[in-house]
Amino acid sequence: MSFTTIGQIKKGMKNVRESKQFEKGSLSNIEQVFIFGLDVKRKAKKKIKISPAFTGASKEKLKRGESVADFSKIVIDRDFLLDIFKKICEIRATFGSGNKQSLSKFMKAIKNGKIDFMKLQKNVATSNQKYFSSISKKIGINRELLYSIAFSVYKPIFELCAAEKQSFMEDYKWKKGSCPVCGTAAAMAKFEKEVGRRLLWCPLCGTEWVFRRIKCPFCDNENQDSLRYFYLGEKSSYRVDVCDECKGYIKTVDERKRSKDEKTIFEAEDLMTIFLDTLAEKEGYKKF
């Protein structure tokens, strides 16, 4: 699940802070962006039309191995978009003086029509980094900054869209490691407390779906000899599942090693386990 309340965000950031992987200031910045996302969700409900993102019968699409949504088709009120882009730029400007000029250029480019909202939305939805490289050169700002601003705006809107299908997906066994709603590659996984089902998590729209326990979500490898995992100790609820065929890895939360009331909020878990990304990459594995 994703953050649904400010209380969850505060608790999640407290846990991340205790892991001592981030400076206090950077965590405060991340917290502001999470709170911004909740605010966007709250306001967006009356400012967007989700139905155009879903065309055709979802069940039939899933049977054919097709994701059910096209987030580029979500209709979003332009004035609302201008308002939330302005808000995220104001938030990002408080992170340090270095980005203020770039943020000003970004807002100017939007107002002058140098950035097309529809293209921006489409390329966030498809994680097309070539587009962001092109636009960043065109308006003269850092690509990573440009993408992170756009991602912060559109992610909560995509999550609202995906929520329309979440209950439908809960018990549906999707055969792919990419999101059944939007097609994005899974970023993390978990083993549930009760029966140990394996669920994957989409970092773009927050969808969770059931997936085979012994299978690579990136290349579909099912050979147990080339699928393994490593962890830091028997009591740790974190592990990294790796595939020696495609050299991909996915961080996993084992809820069976946690208390019953401890919820898995992937946005916080992803931050808590940055050190596992470092370990996996040092061993020659890659994130898809």
Helices and strands in order:
Layout: H1 6-18, H2 24-44, E1 48-49, H3 58-63, E2 75-76, H4 78-93, H5 100-111, H6 117-125, H7 129-139, H8 143-169, E3 188-191, E4 198-201, E5 208-211, E6 227-231, E7 238-243, E8 249-254, H9 266-272, H10 274-282
Parallel strand pairs: 3-8
Antiparallel strand pairs: 1-2, 3-4, 4-5, 6-7, 7-8
Helix pairs in contact: 1-2, 1-9, 2-4, 2-8, 4-5, 4-8, 6-8, 7-8
Q: Can you tell me about this structure?
A:
The two termini are 21 Å apart. By secondary structure, the protein is an alpha+beta fold. It has two domains: 6-169, no CATH class; 188-282, no CATH class. A hairpin with a 6-residue loop joins strand 3 (188-191) and strand 4. It has ten helices and eight strands. Helix 1 (6-18) runs parallel beside helix 9. The strands form two sheets. It has a six-stranded mixed beta sheet with strand order 5-4-3-8-7-6, with helices on one face. It has a two-stranded antiparallel sheet with strand order 1-2. The longest helix is centred in the middle third of the chain and has 27 residues, at 143-169.
Mean pLDDT: 92
**What is the oligomer described by this structure?**
single chain
Low-confidence stretches: none
For the record, the count of structural domains works out to: 2
Fraction of residues in H or I helices = 40-55%
Largest sheet: 6 strands, mixed
- Secondary-structure element order, as H and E? HHEHEHHHHHEEEEEEHH
Radius of gyration: 19 Å
Individual helix count: 10
If strands are numbered along the chain, what order do they take across the biggest sheet?
A: 5-4-3-8-7-6
